[in-house]
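Subject: Protein entry, chain in single-letter code together with its fold tokens

Category: Structural biology, sequence-to-fold work with a learned token vocabulary.

Notation: Tokens come from a learned vocabulary of local backbone shapes, not from coordinates.

Start of record: The labelled sequence and token lines come straight after this line.
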Amino acid sequence: MKKIGVACGILVLLLAGCGQDAPVRVEDHTWQLTTLQSREADGQIIARGPGAGQPDTAEELDLTCTALDGVLTLIDATHDRTGTGSYQQVEATPQTVTYQVSVEEREGMAAASVTVQADGQEIPTLILQLDDYTLNFCPADAEPRQNAAQTPETG
């Protein structure tokens, strides 16, 4: 439980000050995976979404996430698998909405916000932390960007 609290704190600090007047919510988009990182691999990117680019050595994984009425659904089109779980809002600020999440046997936290890119472009971002994995998502209809969800800049 302590790990979840620490992860939530880090997510909120990373995303604080980024974005717009109204928070982005997990229900606002169908989310497409940009990167999947593993704590066991020292935070290395072990998988990337379609068209995400770097690193070339990471497995390409077509994973989408949707949320509606407390039900979180992860669809892995690459391996033809679907995982379902639940989410509950924990906190909302003008910049970030945080959630307690559970997907099958995994527990964690999620944060929805806006990431400001180096070029000034704002991209809605969902970061999902489940056990030892951090999944970074952008809206499925957004143009894939390398490491889009990893480098928020305070604004």
